[in-house]
């Protein structure tokens, strides 16, 4: 599963882990992406989205119909 949120477009962040000796090694910070199933009344069906925890809060605030309309307007498949 890709580490990308379909609602917000959140992608992994990259940087370094720094040890006590100050040696740097590459690492990445993945967003908290979940697979979540929603009922969308405007489509009359369920959709499964890959959303981050912050994306779930966005759906709660805006509503699933508005968020799905934005995703479809970008040309993404739901």
Automatic annotation (TrEMBL):
Pfam families: Ribosomal_L28 (PF00830). GO terms for biological process: translation. InterPro entries: Ribosomal_bL28, Ribosomal_bL28/bL31-like_sf, Ribosomal_bL28_bact-type, Ribosomal_bL28_sf. GO terms for cellular component: ribonucleoprotein complex; ribosome. Gene3D superfamilies: Ribosomal protein L28/L24 (2.30.170.40). The keyword Cell wall biogenesis/degradation does not apply. Coiled coil: none annotated. Keywords: Ribonucleoprotein, Ribosomal protein. One of its GO terms (molecular function) is structural constituent of ribosome. SUPFAM superfamilies: L28p-like (SSF143800). HAMAP family: Ribosomal_bL28 (MF_00373). Belongs to the bacterial ribosomal protein bL28 family. This is Large ribosomal subunit protein bL28. It comes from Xylanimonas oleitrophica.
């Amino acid at each position: 599963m890709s580490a990308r949120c379909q609602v917000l477009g959140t992608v992994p962040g990259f940087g370094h882990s720094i040890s006590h000796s100050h040696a740097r090694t590459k690492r990445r910070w993945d967003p908290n992406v979940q697979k979540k199933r929603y009922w969308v009344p405007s489509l009359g069906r369920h959709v499964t989205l890959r959303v981050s925890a912050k994306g779930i809060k966005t759906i709660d605030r805006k509503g699933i119909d508005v968020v799905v309309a934005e995703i479809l307007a970008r040309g993404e498949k739901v």
